Amino acid sequence: MAENRMSDGSDDRAAADPASAAxxxxxxxxxxxxxxREHLGRLIVPGALRAAMGARPxxxxxxxxxRVGTLLIGDTAVHEVGDVLRASEERRxxxxxxxxxxxxxxxxxCVRGGFxxxxxxxVDHTGxxxxxxxxxxxxxxxxxxxxxxxxxWTSSGAVMPLExxxxxKIDMLPT
Length: 175
Hints:
The protein is an alpha+beta fold. The chain has helices spanning 12-16, 21-32, 48-52, 98-112, 130-136, 162-172, and strands at 38-44, 58-68, 71-73, 78-80, 83-86, 120-123, 126-127, 138-139, 142-145, 148-152, 159-161. The strands form 2 sheets. A 7-stranded mixed beta sheet has the order 5-6-1-2-3-4-7. The protein has a 4-stranded antiparallel beta sheet with strand order 8-9-10-11. Helix 2 (21-32) runs parallel beside helix 6. The radius of gyration is 19 Å and the shape is elongated. It starts with 11 loop residues before the first helix and ends with a helix. 26% of the residues are buried.
């Protein structure tokens, strides 16, 4: 019987079990170790009463995670990347488009929520349910194809095995 070892010493049978996605992320966390993490932010919209008294929407800290390609890997959770903002002070400026105006407003919400100007903040990230992946065969950009957990890593739908994706992306990160 042939041994099922991959080039990095891992067992390729683990990648065929959807429940093993959790184990792949655990190994990724160990490899990431001291790599820099980015902030996660959560949008808080004031209720009608607070808004009437002048409260404005803000983005507040909601943890930290390693950004690994299209994924945000936290200590216990995994998310799909949403919008990535750089917190900046609110100021009057000319805009060439409504999209630029909305982005500047979102960046100012980060400062109102407590982030230092210049801080990278990930907002609108979507949680990935690894138990749903095991039960239903898909969650977020992850799915199971032919018994292997794969990740959709481009908007056009390109996929690759999650284990190879994590290995490649982590190898490219600064440590």
